[in-house]
Amino acid sequence: MNTEEKIKEIAKYVLFVEGRFYATTQQIAQSAGMDRTAIHYYFRTKVNLVNIITGEVINEFPAPAWNDIKALSLKEKLKRYIDFNTEKSKKYPYLDVYIITQNECSGFGEKLFFPLAEMIPEISVCIREERTSYNNPLLFLTDLVSMVSGFHISADFFRKRSDIILSSSFYHQRAESIINLFLK
């Protein structure tokens, strides 16, 4: 791996895996086993480095376009969202939190997040038909995102402190449980 790639991989790890959002270029360079001038040479600034690595992550985990999922049932859309988020968050547990807390929702966040807002009309119908216990589509989506994204941070916390290993069957059972909590 060349120096530029090593810096990008270490920066992804520090920011999106460890959750050290305010790591300095010096700290990133030290984690990469090099001097801070290497980051300046390849990327000029931390902002530029972060923009580049965030773009790479988006390319690695592209959210589906609404047109590709709009014909699916709400249940299937929820399953796809949970699966999409699970795969992304297994690799980068703090990515969603980074995007939200750094006010990056306008650019990168829109490309990275599943098209949940497009589901509001369908969730509203579900509420009217009493197929959910929720009475507000925004509350439905907020709880869904919190439950799905927040899990990976807590799972990461427990994994670091014990020998917990989460199997693929665990993730499948979890997805079914979440869907059952949201839909009757």
Tags for this model:
single chain, 184 residues, mainly alpha, elongated
Task: Summarize the model shown.
The chain is an all-alpha fold and 184 residues long. The chain has helices spanning 3-17, 25-31, 36-43, 46-60, 66-69, 74-91, 95-101, 105-112, 120-128, 137-161, 168-182.
User: What is the terminal-to-terminal distance?
Assistant: 50 Å
Strand content: under 5%
- Shape type: elongated
Helix content: over 70%
Could you give the order of the helices and strands? HHHHHHHHHHH
Count of runs of 4 or more consecutive helical residues: 11
The unreliable regions are: none
Task: Tell me the total number of β-strands.
Answer: 0
In terms of quaternary structure, the protein is single chain
The largest sheet, given as strand count, sense and whether it forms a barrel, is: none
Radius of gyration of CA atoms, rounded to a whole number: 19 Å
Task: Kindly name the structural category.
Answer: mainly alpha
